[in-house]
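Researcher: If only I could read backbone structure tokens as easily as an amino acid sequence. Walk me, if you will, through where the backbone shape changes along the chain. I have put the entry right below:
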Amino acid sequence: MSYGKKTLEDLRGPASELRREIPEVYAGFSAELKAAMAPGALDTKTKELMALVIGVTQQCDGCIASHARAAARAGATKKEVAEALGVAIFMNGGPSTVYGPRAWEAFAEFSTE
């Protein structure tokens, strides 16, 4: 298991425990996620690339792993992910040169390309 899959695996247990304690919060978050990622003027793939870049700029390992997987499932290509990560590096500088490669590795794990 590598970066993306390991991160999701490590979070699975604690997240499930917390979800049982505060189900209303998680239900609200889930509804917000579904609404935000639904296709509209922007397709889901574009939104997942945006979320991946935000995960990089926020240095959120769980966000990176989750949205790398979702971007792959939405049909993002390696080139699209690379260019999106380039924007993260441009906008966020040095920290994104650390978290960008983490996102790249996570996407590669989930990509069928």
Notes: Residues 54 and 88 are 8 Å apart (CA to CA). The chain has a mean pLDDT of 96.
